Amino acid sequence: MAIDTRVIGTTLPTTTLTIDRGRLRFFAKAIGETDPIYTDVEAAKAAGHPDIPAPPTFLFSVELENPDPFAFLASMGVDLRFVLHGEQAFTYHAIAYPGDELVASPRITNVYTKKGGTLEFVVKNTAITRADGTPIAELNSVIVIQNPGVKP
Amino acid sequence: MTRAESIVVGTELPPLQVGPISRLTLALFAGASGDHNPMHVDLDAAKSVGLPDVFAHGMLSMAYLGRLLTNWVPQERIRSYRVRFAAITPVHGEPTCTGRVTHIEDVDGERRATVELAVTLADGTTTLTGDAVVAV
User: Fold this and answer.
1) What structural domains does chain A harbor?
2) What is the CATH number of the domain that holds B59?
3) In this structure, are residues A61 and A123 in contact, taking their beta carbons and an 8 Å threshold?
4) How many CB pairs under 8 A join A and B?
5) Per-residue pLDDT tens digits for B1-54
6) Interface of A with B in 101-130 (CB under 8 A)
7) Beta strands in A24-147 (DSSP E)
8) Domain tally for chain B?
9) Which residue in A94, A131, B105, B118 is a FRET match for B80, CA 20 to 30 A apart?
10) How far is CA B120 from each of CA A56, A99, B15, B56, rounded to the nearest angstrom?
11) Nearest C-alpha of chain B: how many angstroms from A24?
12) ipTM score for this prediction
């Protein structure tokens, strides 16, 4: 199966996530974070933050708030069981805090194949901003699809 | 926290060792991160594609590497951070995160260090490689 390269440049629907302390504490627990600035408001304030900061990779979760975040891949004919995360990059502009309403605006920027079509790659860029447009970060994801039925 | 003047090319970050990744950790990370891909929590889904077991989210390991960075410098000094996922991390894998300063330059009036990053398992498998640029 080859993904139609005409999807390059496609803008995907935006997703909004309003951050709260409970979600950030849950994330901190899941990643084993022990630095109190990520769970304790007073510790965060003592370190110069207005509230507990969203950790560097939490911003990846904004898009996942979409009820069906992988629908764009399924719509290209991709079997989600064969999808792997190839690369992930973040460029930071500001730290996000509880109360911030974050907006993720994703766009497909490239599609290509390797190894005679056994591996397909989808590259997606996502801008994360506050609702007022303040830039928070840019994300770049490389998604790898391992096509089991294709012989190299 | 590290003093800026002590950071030079070759400086190694204090490594971060993470205990064996349990199925509970994968369940918590699925919920906390919003990544509900069944391949990380549902054994039936993993077996349906011929895998012997579920495997850890790549973004969980990237979060561990993020902890390595924020243990070393305040988060507001991280300008960029990227990784390549080189191998999957099995359940019970024990990641060790490492980093080393490879380059220092002045950009936009600030001194920035490039840190080469890696995550390796106890058996020597490298699961993630990457780099971060931090103001120092």
Assistant:
1) 5-19+54-146 (3.10.129.10)
2) 3.10.129.10
3) no
4) 106
5) 566 668 999 999 999 999 999 999 999 999 999 999 999 999 999 999 899 999
6) none
7) 83-92, 101-114, 119-130, 135-146
8) 1
9) A131
10) 20, 36, 11, 14
11) 8
12) 0.95
Closest among A128, A124, A131 to A70, alpha carbons compared: A124
The amino acid sitting at B19 is G
Length of chain A measured in residues: 152
**pTM reported for the whole predicted model:** 0.95
CB A52, CB A38: distance < 8 Å: yes
Separation of alpha carbons B64 and B68, rounded Å:
7
Tell me how many helices (H) and strands (E) chain A has.
4, 5
The two three-digit tokens of residue A89, written as one number: 């990059």
Contact list in B for residue A60 (CB cut-off 8 A) is 33, 59
Quickly list H helices, A65-110: 71-74
By three-state DSSP, how is residue A64 classified? helix
